[in-house]
Design a protein that fits this description.
Elements: H1 4-9, H2 11-24, H3 28-49, H4 53-64, H5 75-79, H6 85-99, H7 103-114, H8 118-142, H9 148-159, H10 165-176, H11 183-191, H12 200-209
Amino acid sequence: MAGILDLLNSDLGKQIVSGVAGSTGNDASKTGSALTMALPVLMKAMERNASSPEGAAGLMGALTGKHDGSILDNLGGLFEGGVDESVKQDGAGILGHILGSKQQGVEQVIGQKSGLDAGSVANILKVAAPILMGVLGKQKQEQNISNSGDLTGLLGGLLGGSSANNDQSFLEKILDADGDGSVIDDVAGMVLGGNKSKGGLGGMLGGLFGK
């Protein structure tokens, strides 16, 4: 199965990046950078939420109903003339649910690394979150997933599976921060190119964005 970052490099991914950039008024390359960092974090947060029976049931319900993948069928219509406010409100709800108190810290870290302010990152994520849910909904349908064990397997597969230990540690560090802004200190060495190891997602992102 292709990972979530492979998706961003596909034609669909490029359409998503340019559409999100246009609808939020941000530079396309910076938007791409923000999404490259944000989508694995959101996926990891969903994977953690789905590890409880209640969380898994909630995500299964969302992917069966509202987020069944149909949003991907007309991305041109979604982005044309600006994204509808209801989509952004939906995105804000998704982010609040999966990131909780970590949301602000995550937005600050991604903003620092991508060269955007946290407010711009917040707008990008609001548009991207329903699309990400649509990607998951489509994968759920294609793989005929009907139980929570398979669902967490789907999320893990999109994250790159258990081989990406360094990446997982980076994601955990962001998500385990207490949300008061110190998340930036917690992961600065990994995300912002400090003196820590260049392995894993931190090193990969540094290489991708040349920072």
